[in-house]
């Protein structure tokens, strides 16, 4: 028998990803009033996928009739609106936990738990789900997300929503979930939404008019050109990155003018990059 004949045949079978959460995870129901004291500084917090899916369906009703996956989305102007599955685990590099976003150098890929980053001020933490959850995403033609409905989006904007009252205006319609939460507040008499994309207004804005009538106005214009001094409260969310409000000089000029007039003006993640002030 030759030496080559004694060699073991290399297995071509691909290892499967885990299908269950980690043993130490204790899933809890998701709620938008989630208390930060319940979020450990050292461990991920796991929400039940069912509770999050139910919350999304109530907050963004349009997703209830949508298919799942990258190829079953809806074109909205230059964007694609679709449900992106977040798996329990994914193949990743062991260097990822050290801040290196690569898997080269011959490193073996490991099954890594899927997490989503959340922020409390400047403090980053992570959340997981106990099953696959389908996240609403608005992406460009390359499927790069422009915005998505994640726990971080919800937790970092709920403070702004609580400030809404009287005559409120929003810069950036997005997927419309913030506007819906603002309109549900009895303290808000009227909401004006400034959005530069007519396509987003038609798709996400018109359902708000159907549900809330003349309490909401949709204006297609650039947020920087809007008459902000006509409103009591201004809520801005036009940036892709959390905390970019601090670097936006045009926004800061409008914000300072409103605050000088004893009005409320808040940008998404404002205060995170304090060096910008």
Structural write-up:
The chain is an alpha/beta fold and 277 residues long. The chain has 2 domains: 36-66 and 85-135, no CATH class; 155-276, Vaccinia Virus protein VP39 (Rossmann fold, 3-Layer(aba) Sandwich). The chain is 21% helix and 26% strand. The chain has helices at residues 49-59, 151-163, 177-183, 198-212, 249-260; strands at 45-47, 74-76, 79-86, 89-92, 110-113, 116-120, 123-129, 133-139, 145-148, 166-171, 188-195, 216-220, 233-236, 264-267. A 5-stranded parallel beta sheet has the order 12-11-10-13-14, sandwiched between helices. The longest helix is centred in the last third of the chain and has 15 residues, at 198-212. It is globular, with a radius of gyration of 22 Å.
Spell out the blueprint of helices and strands.
Blueprint: E1 45-47, H1 49-59, E2 74-76, E3 79-86, E4 89-92, E5 110-113, E6 116-120, E7 123-129, E8 133-139, E9 145-148, H2 151-163, E10 166-171, H3 177-183, E11 188-195, H4 198-212, E12 216-220, E13 233-236, H5 249-260, E14 264-267
Parallel strand pairs: 1-7, 10-11, 10-13, 11-12, 13-14
Antiparallel strand pairs: 2-3, 3-8, 4-5, 6-7, 8-9
Class inferred from helices and paired strands: alpha/beta
Total strands: the figure is 14
Q: Indicate the low-confidence ranges by residue numbers.
A: 100-104, 273-277
CATH class of the largest domain: Alpha Beta
Overall helicity:
10-25%
The sequence of SSEs as H and E is EHEEEEEEEEHEHEHEEHE
